[in-house]
Amino acid sequence: MDRHEIEGHEVIEGEVKATGNGAHVLVPKDWRGADVKIIRTSEPTE
């Protein structure tokens, strides 16, 4: 596993869920309009 260091304001943990031909991660509504970074921390189970 690689190690990455990023600066930010808040961290949440969640699960990627299938949506149509892709997938999504839900974040709080008050994050709308903010820049975010998604980091995969485990291998996909499918």
UniProtKB/TrEMBL annotation:
Pfam families: DUF2080. This is DUF2080 family transposase-associated protein.
